[in-house]
Amino acid sequence: MGMTRIEIIVLGLVLLPHYALALDGAVPGSPNSTSFPVQSAPARSDKASQPDADPGVKRAVFAHETASRDARHIADWVVASGDSGGLPFVIIDKVNAKVFVFDAHGRIRGAAPALLGLARGDDTVPGIGDRELSNIRPEERTTPAGRFVAQRGMNARGEDVVWVDYDSGVSLHRVITSNPRERRLERLATPTPADNRISYGCINVPAAFYNDVVNPSFTGANGIVYVLPETRSIRQVFGAYDVAIRHPYAVEVR
After folding, report:
1. DSSP, residue by residue, 207-251
2. Element spanning 172, H or E
3. Same domain, yes or no: 81 and 15
4. Residues 210 and 122 in one domain
5. Can you give the residue range of the structural domain that contains 237?
6. CB neighbours of 229 closer than 8 A, spacing ≥ 6?
7. For a tag on the chain, would you pick the N or C end, based on fewer CB atoms within 10 A?
8. Among the listed residues 93, 132, 135, the one whose alpha carbon sits nearest the alpha carbon of residue 116
9. What is the C-alpha to C-alpha distance for residues 80 and 58, in angstroms, rounded to an integer?
């Protein structure tokens, strides 16, 4: 007996999904069968589709300055946490012998190479600020790591400086060129930090950088100086969290 028209239509509706699967090389129940979940629309990549979990959290602006991961880590943390208390701040990267100066909002004002303490280390010798330079041994000539409230002042030679750690006699100042054998200007000009360890602990920067960037940044206000460590981690020294992890959607200050 032949099939009625209605029966043919019903049979077609039953067999159609099996036929479609067969075209894809899959037979229901066979080892190579596949499922066909409903696919959602692709996620939008525009900024509006990203969750803003951290409204108001900012990061530092380095502009076109090259900086190490540790320097960026600390700068971002300072801005995001407000650790500088609304004051301009300076980051001294000892490993890379470089100084970064930021305004109170975390925008870079300038960067320059620096000369640092001859000896490698993050601690200062107690009472070293009261000793004559001639009595300070080479292994004691360190630039201490840490967070310092810095202010402008005068050194024993009557020159204006930014005191980083007054008790230890450590300051940020123009490069000293009184001893030609030390070749301090040449050391600043070389492309690597390998020869930038020469001072008794102070931070020497190019005179033009001090005059044009450092000095104006501390006019009328103190500032915070963060000297990055070289024998310990930045977490040990500052307790700084990683802004990129805690606030993944933080943006640069404007």
Report:
1. HHHIIIIIHHHTTTS-EEEEE--SSS-HHHHH----HHHH-TT-E
2. strand 170-174
3. no
4. yes
5. 54-252
6. 94, 122, 145, 236, 237
7. N
8. 93
9. 5
171 close to 124: Cβ distance less than 8 angstroms = no
Task: Residue 74: name the closest of 53, 45, 102, 35 by CA.
Answer: 102
CA distance 34 to 24: 9
* CATH number of the domain to which 174 belongs: 2.40.440.10
Q: Do 158 and 202 have their domain in common?
A: yes
Give me the amino acid identity at 254: R
Q: What kind and span of H or E run contains 65?
A: none
Distance, in Å, from the CA atom of 140 to the CA atom of 118, rounded to the nearest integer, reads 8
Taking CA atoms, 9 is separated from 3, 13, 204, in Å, by 10, 6, 91
Summarize pLDDT for 148-174 with one digit per residue, the tens: 999 999 998 899 999 999 999 999 999
Retrieve residue 201's tokens. Answer: 């602990």
Question: What pLDDT, in 10s, does the model give residues 173-217?
Answer: 999 999 999 999 999 999 999 999 999 999 999 999 999 999 999
What is the count of structural domains for the chain? Answer: 2
Strands 58-59 and 89-93, by their bridges, are: unpaired
Q: Which residue has the tokens 């930038």?
A: 196
Q: How many helices (H) does the chain have, and how many strands (E)?
A: 7, 12
